[in-house]
């Protein structure tokens, strides 16, 4: 069921002035606000938003053309689209938003600057419904529906939003069925994470659990294997057979995987390195291991065979049409 209309109405009630679509916001008060006269010259909240709309538990803001486009194509309801005056190349996006019943408003660019603060907005922003975490059960059902061994990613205390977003981007690209975060000492699914994920956050399920180690132990009873990553790991990451129900565990940069979760690992793998540095950024290490899982499950010979079959089927279809 589509709840866009209801949620959009709710978004208006949460503090937006009820202007007509495409309102230019050129009143004297708005111009004064743009110059910081009435609201000060600091980097405080954008003047047209209520306190509730700035509450971290309220709707999220997504900035940038690709993230906003992904939001429109994703599962979360888009409540409002803001477009900077003079921003070009957004006609298709605006048309799509209107088709979905999303209110579109043009605002002076300075308002987006104030709203985005340090983020690069590229002339467009979308207010979306707060991100809903899924459940572990839903992730497992998704894996089962895919008719392939489950592929989960556990992130232990990844606290930097940029790292979390980058990891989500790689996870979605590699076919991870779901990501699991701890409820505490972890970055949440914020606008900064969405921006860093380049829209991947809209397409990959994320669940939160109280204890990653306990959850891993429960899943091992269901046939899962756990692979942790550490610079001191005894096994080369390329030596593991990933063609089984697998959990890849990545730890934070400061302390790596916690002791309890490490105790649940069937393998603790290392990435061979020849340079002088002894570790990699968490998002880089995660990407390397995730792509190894993808590669082991889709060997080149199999991928080539599938491509040839698809090409042959297309050729037959074209010949038959002639």
TrEMBL record:
Domain RNA 2-O ribose methyltransferase substrate binding positions: 61-134
GO molecular function, one term: RNA binding
UniProt keyword tRNA-binding, yes or no: no
GO biological process, one term: methylation
Top-rank taxon, per record: Bacteria
Pfam assignment, any one: SpoU_sub_bind
SUPFAM superfamilies: alpha/beta knot (SSF75217), L30e-like (SSF55315)
UniProt region (Disordered), positions on chain: 1-27, 41-62
Gene Ontology CC terms, in alphabetical order: cytosol
Annotated Basic and acidic residues bias: 1-12
UniProt biased composition (Acidic residues): 41-55
CDD domains attached to this UniProt entry: SpoU-like_RlmB (cd18103)
SMART domains: SpoU_sub_bind
Keywords of this entry: Methyltransferase, Transferase
PANTHER family associated with the record: 23S RRNA (GUANOSINE-2'-O-)-METHYLTRANSFERASE RLMB (PTHR46429:SF1)
Family that this chain belongs to: Belongs to the class IV-like SAM-binding methyltransferase superfamily. RNA methyltransferase TrmH family.
The name this protein goes by in its record: 23S rRNA (Guanosine(2251)-2'-O)-methyltransferase RlmB
Native source organism of the sequence: Eiseniibacteriota bacterium
Higher taxonomy: Bacteria, Candidatus Eiseniibacteriota
């Amino acid at each position: 069921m589509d709840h866009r209309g209801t949620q959009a109405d709710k978004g208006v009630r949460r503090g937006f002035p009820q202007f007509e679509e495409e309102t230019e916001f050129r009143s004297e008060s708005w111009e004064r606000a743009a110059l910081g006269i009435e609201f000060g010259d600091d980097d405080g909240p954008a003047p047209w938003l209520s306190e509730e709309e700035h509450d971290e538990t309220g709707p999220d803001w997504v900035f940038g053309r690709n993230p906003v486009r992904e939001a429109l194509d994703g599962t979360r309801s888009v409540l409002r689209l803001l477009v900077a005056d003079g921003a070009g190349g957004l006609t298709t996006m605006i048309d799509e938003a209107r088709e979905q019943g999303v209110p579109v408003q043009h605002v002076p660019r300075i308002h987006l600057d104030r709203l985005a603060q340090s983020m690069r907005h590229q002339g467009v922003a979308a207010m979306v419904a707060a991100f809903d975490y899924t459940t572990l059960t839903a992730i497992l059902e998704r894996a089962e529906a895919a008719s392939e061994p489950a592929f989960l990613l556990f992130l232990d205390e990844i606290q930097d939003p940029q790292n979390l977003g980058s990891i989500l981007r790689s996870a979605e690209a590699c076919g991870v069925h779901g990501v699991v975060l701890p409820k505490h000492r972890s970055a949440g699914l914020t606008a900064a994470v969405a921006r860093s994920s380049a829209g991947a956050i809209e397409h990959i399920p994320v669940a939160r659990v109280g204890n990653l180690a306990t959850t891993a132990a429960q899943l091992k009873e269901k046939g899962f294997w756990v692979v942790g990553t550490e610079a001191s790991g005894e096994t080369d990451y390329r030596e593991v057979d990933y063609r089984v129900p697998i959990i890849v565990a990545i730890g934070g940069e400061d302390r790596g995987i916690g002791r309890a979760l490490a105790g649940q690992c069937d393998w603790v793998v290392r990435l061979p390195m020849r340079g002088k540095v002894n570790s990699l950024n968490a998002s880089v290490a995660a990407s390397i291991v995730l792509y190894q899982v993808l590669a082991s499950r889709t060997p080149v010979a199999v991928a080539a065979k599938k491509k040839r079959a698809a090409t042959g089927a297309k050729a037959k279809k074209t010949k038959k049409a002639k």
